[in-house]
């Protein structure tokens, strides 16, 4: 293409469908290893800063991760209004902890991640993301299996975040997108508690995973709500699902949300305020139609299988 200058020789290409890829030019590799669970890269990119990549799938990067992590964390916190006890399943970069700690009401945060090698690498190479959150006295880090932790937990949690890598069949998390997993989470939620699921990409040509995860959440929780965000470094718009025993309205008052954030958080938001939240909660019609038409529920016997790994290669 005339006027185009390609400045990278090493690329990570993520497959979004059998016919489409999304490639990022890499200017440096900060860490690379095959852990007992997955292949990890922490890289420098030309456009988006540092990034964590697991099994060839883009997790987050310093250039736009706030668009993901603020969207993941704060809608549920706003619905609750005074969350005290937070459980994060996954979340290796530490940015989910960082966002939860913005709330002055938070007294305890437990993060459970199965892959200690990834967490250690993120602590070392991605301080821009965790911003020292692992060292906060309210935080407990558990390296272990989320299912095992949920089975043994006797605590009641105000918010449970399922911030897991995509359910690639050979990866560590595909069983954690199932009805049985959601039922375990339901058991440890407080009566007013809220479950938050990162539920994958949502495009007009690839929304089956998201629609089925929404249906699976609806099979366990009386009230659900779904919403989207846009993260440019991802190959598609990204979806989340909320589940609770309490009503979750998509209609919020922006002024009331702004007042709540001013009173109960330390601020510093880049994505979220009342107006942004109101818009985020209004899912497009094609998404709502897909969820309404979907009937399949994911189970341990029939868990989801996310499409394909990405590839790191030199050109």
Task: Characterize the structure shown.
The chain has 315 residues and is of the alpha/beta class. The protein folds into two domains: 10-63 and 307-314, Spermidine synthase, tetramerisation domain (Spermidine Synthase, Chain: A, domain 2, Roll); 65-293, 3-Layer(aba) Sandwich (Rossmann fold), CATH 3.40.50. It contains ten helices and 13 strands. It has helices at 65-80, 95-100, 116-125, 127-130, 146-152, 179-188, 208-218, 254-264, 274-280, 285-293, and strands at 10-17, 20-34, 39-45, 49-54, 57-61, 85-90, 108-113, 139-143, 157-163, 189-201, 223-229, 238-244, 311-314. It has a seven-stranded mixed beta sheet with strand order 8-7-6-9-10-12-11, sandwiched between helices. The longest helix is centred in the N-terminal third of the chain and has 16 residues, at 65-80. It starts with 9 loop residues before the first strand and ends with a strand. The model has no long low-confidence stretch (mean pLDDT 91).
Layout: helices, strands, pairs:
Blueprint: E1 10-17, E2 20-34, E3 39-45, E4 49-54, E5 57-61, H1 65-80, E6 85-90, H2 95-100, E7 108-113, H3 116-125, H4 127-130, E8 139-143, H5 146-152, E9 157-163, H6 179-188, E10 189-201, H7 208-218, E11 223-229, E12 238-244, H8 254-264, H9 274-280, H10 285-293, E13 311-314
Parallel strand pairs: 6-7, 6-9, 7-8, 9-10
Antiparallel strand pairs: 1-2, 1-13, 2-3, 3-4, 4-5, 10-12, 11-12
Helix pairs in contact: 7-10, 8-9
Compose a concise summary of this entry.
This protein is α/β, with parallel strands linked by helices. It contains ten helices and 13 strands. The model has no long low-confidence stretch (mean pLDDT 91).
């Amino acid at each position: 293409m005339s006027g185009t200058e390609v400045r990278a020789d090493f690329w990570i290409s993520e497959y979004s469908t059998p016919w489409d890829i999304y490639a990022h030019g890499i200017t440096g590799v900060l860490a690379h290893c095959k852990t007992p669970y997955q292949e990890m890269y922490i890289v420098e990119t030309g456009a988006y800063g540092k990034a964590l990549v697991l099994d060839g799938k883009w997790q987050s990067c310093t250039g736009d991760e706030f668009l993901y992590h603020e969207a993941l964390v704060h809608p549920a916190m706003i619905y609750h209004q005074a969350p005290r006890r937070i459980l994060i399943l996954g979340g290796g970069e530490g940015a989910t902890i960082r966002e939860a700690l913005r709330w002055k009401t938070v007294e305890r945060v437990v993060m459970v991640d199965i892959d200690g090698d990834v967490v250690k690498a993120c602590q070392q190479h991605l301080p821009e993301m965790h911003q020292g959150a692992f060292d906060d006295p309210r935080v407990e880090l558990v390296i272990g299996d989320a299912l095992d932790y949920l089975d043994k937990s006797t605590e009641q949690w105000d918010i449970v975040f399922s911030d897991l890598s995509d359910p690639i069949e050979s990866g560590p998390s595909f069983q954690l997108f199932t009805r049985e997993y959601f039922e375990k989470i339901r058991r440890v939620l407080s009566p007013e508690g809220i479950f938050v699921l990162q539920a994958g990409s949502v495009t007009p040509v690839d929304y089956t995973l998201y629609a089925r995860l929404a249906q699976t959440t609806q099979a366990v929780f009386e009230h659900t709500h779904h919403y989207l965000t846009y993260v440019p470094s991802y190959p598609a718009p990204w979806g989340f699902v909320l589940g609770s025993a309490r009503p979750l309205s998509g209609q919020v008052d922006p002024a009331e949300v702004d007042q709540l954030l001013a009173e109960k958080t330390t601020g510093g938001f880049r994505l979220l305020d009342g107006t942004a939240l109101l818009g985020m909660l209004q899912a497009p019609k094609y998404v709502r139609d897909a969820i309404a038409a979907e009937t399949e529920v994911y189970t341990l016997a029939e868990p989801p299988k996310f499409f394909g790994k990405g590839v790191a290669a030199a050109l």
